[in-house]
Design a protein that fits this description.
The chain has 579 residues and is of the alpha/beta class. The strands form 5 sheets. The chain has a 7-stranded parallel β-sheet, with helices on both faces.
């Protein structure tokens, strides 16, 4: 971790140099934007957000907030400012990769689980950067190995990382030995006394919360788990620490709330919630995280039927996403394949129940927090929050209420007395400056002009530079639109285009490319391009293309190999299909 930390500090320094750094007492005023402060109040047009150091000094209409003469003023007229998004349920020990849950699907014969764990550790800073670039300024890691406490400190020491709250190992009613590589993320409590010992072990690390994994015994029901749950609650509450409970079944969730659980970290997936349960949640003021997206993520990857949002394609971990299709390489017998299909069918059947129950809880006035369960197979750290928010809206929540769930209400999972989640005097200056109105369309939360974290302005394009695939895709789209300037903007000034295997140089440099492609674009008003297959390997992107309408001729199939360096295409080799 020490070596990783040093490398990250160097990267963080360059990121901060790209934006104005603030002295501890420096004043900065963001003016002209429409502000949604996350309190539930109406948006404030032509607003002022006054920050001093890492805290908010004032928020309000321009005419009512005095801007001191020494303040640095930034005009954001036409933009929108909202609190930074909070993902109330993640697991950093999981990568979202195909191999990250061998207790769900064991693919160790294809790639060892230890490889996945090594990637989780080595890529932590990149994961932090992708999370921030997605607009997520705070996360709650709801349980993992004792490494979680080191991870939290690393985030606190890092110049560029979301705020991180953590729990230690999940205290569980069941065992998961497949995940134990010496620092297990899930530990079965054999008795109430053992459960108290497990809580005490975490209390030594000052956890933000303790997590209990309440899995009902298929034969004995909830009875064996109740004494263990009560012991966990008593021991944690005696130390002033909240308890989050994984209880996806109505019976376990009801028992958890009755016993005093502070948080339910999933919606209910096995039956519809009833009025008595809703009243119980209201009585105890229990916060519920949604995690609708996690079922979709598992089902898509395990079925091989991926349907990613553009923001996931852009900001997801490439190492993880490239490995998703490797399930086809696994030597699964008929029984394993049947079990996998049954799992997919079960998840797809339960997701609508989970979504409907979340909407019912919200409609009843229960605080609902946006959470993804990121890290599980198919649920990416960072951008998956946007799919979760879309699913919450599809379930029936208004855009306004979804945004509150991802800010104000998710902050209640992060901390008992949160200093984030709303834009108010004295709160931490964590916010997103957007180019479009998120109340009109939640997808506009993806159009981030700047991320403000503790008063520091971060450029999402610097946090997570576009991948080679994204650069090539921009080029493809500009080509199809016959937009010559946008097309050339994706190429290095001295880029070279070749025919392969002859090595013939077609054009080199912007001027030569301009002459070649301006003529082609003018002569091809019906130009269309379709990417039939794409493979990305490091700096290289290989596209199987179908180009129609080129100078009015027949469709042409070709293979293009792009080499991308420092965000621009440096070389291209064209191969006619069949050569």
């Amino acid at each position: 971790m020490a070596q990783l930390h040093s490398l990250f500090l160097a990267t963080a320094a360059s990121l901060l140099l790209a934006s104005p750094a603030l002295a501890a007492d420096e004043l900065r005023a963001l003016v002209g934007a429409t502000v949604f402060d996350g309190t539930g109040a109406d948006p404030i047009p032509d607003a002022v957000v006054l920050m001093q150091g890492d805290h908010i000094e004032a928020v309000g209409p321009r005419g009512r907030v005095r801007i001191p003469g020494k303040a640095i003023v930034e005009d954001h007229s036409g933009r929108f400012i909202v609190p930074g998004l909070i993902d109330s349920h993640v697991h950093f020990f999981q990568t979202a990769g195909l191999y990250t849950r061998p207790d769900v699907v064991d693919l160790n014969a294809l790639r060892p689980y230890a490889t996945d764990q090594a990637h989780a550790h080595a890529s932590l800073d990149a994961t932090f950067a992708r999370t921030l670039a997605s607009g997520v300024t705070a996360v709650v890691d709801v349980g993992g190995p004792f490494w979680n406490f080191e991870l939290r400190q690393h985030a606190r020491d890092s110049a560029v990382a979301p705020r991180v709250a953590v729990a230690g190992p999940l205290i569980s009613t069941v065992s998961r030995p497949q995940l134990d590589l010496g620092d297990p993320p899930i530990i079965q409590a054999d008795s109430p006394e053992h459960a108290r010992e497990l809580v005490q072990a975490q209390l030594a690390h000052d956890p933000d919360l303790v997590k209990f994994w309440f899995i009902m015994d298929p034969e004995l029901g909830i009875a064996p788990g109740l004494p263990i749950l009560r012991a966990v609650l008593d021991e944690a509450h005696s130390a002033g620490v909240r308890v989050a409970v994984h209880a996806t079944q109505l019976e376990t969730a009801r028992a958890a709330v009755q016993a005093g659980a502070d948080l339910l970290v999933h919606s209910i997936d096995d039956s519809s919630v009833d009025p008595t349960f809703l009243d119980l949640l209201l009585e105890h003021d229990t916060v519920v995280s949604g995690t609708i997206v996690v079922y979709e993520g598992y089902a898509e990857v395990l079925s091989g039927e991926l349907d990613l949002m553009p923001v996931e394609q852009r900001l997801g971990d490439p190492w993880v996403m490239h490995g998703w299709d490797e399930l086809a390489l696994a030597d699964l017998d008929d029984e394993a394949r049947s079990a996998n299909q049954a799992r997919v069918d079960r998840l797809r059947g339960r997701q609508p129940v989970m979504a409907a129950n979340l909407a019912a809880m919200h409609a009843a006035g229960i605080p609902v927090a946006a959470g993804t369960d990121a890290g599980n197979i198919g649920t990416l750290h960072g951008p998956s929050i946007h799919r979760e928010l879309a699913l919450m809206a599809e379930a029936g929540m208004s855009n306004r209420d979804v945004l509150l769930a991802a800010t104000r209400d998710a902050a209640r999972v992060f901390a008992q007395a949160p200093q984030l989640g709303t834009l108010e005097k004295g709160k931490l200056a964590d916010m997103l400056i957007l180019d479009a109105d998120p109340l009109e369309d939640l997808a506009n939360l993806q159009h981030i002009h700047r991320i403000v974290l503790g008063g520091e302005s971060l450029d999402p394009a610097v946090l997570a530079p576009p991948s080679a695939s994204e650069i090539v895709q921009r080029q493809v789209e500009a080509y199809g639109a016959r937009d010559l300037e946008a097309f050339l903007a994706t190429y290095a000034p001295d880029a070279a285009l070749y025919r392969h295997p002859s090595g013939e140089l077609i054009a080199q440099g912007h001027q030569a490319m301009r002459e070649t492609y301006s003529t082609m674009f003018e002569a091809s008003p019906q130009l269309k391009i379709h990417i039939q297959q794409r493979t990305a390997i490091g700096a290289f992107v290989i596209d199987l293309e179908l180009v129609a309408g080129m100078r009015g001729g027949e469709p042409v199939r070709a293979v293009a190999i792009y080499q991308v360096d420092e965000g621009l295409i440096q070389n291209v080799w064209f191969l006619p299909k069949g050569d």
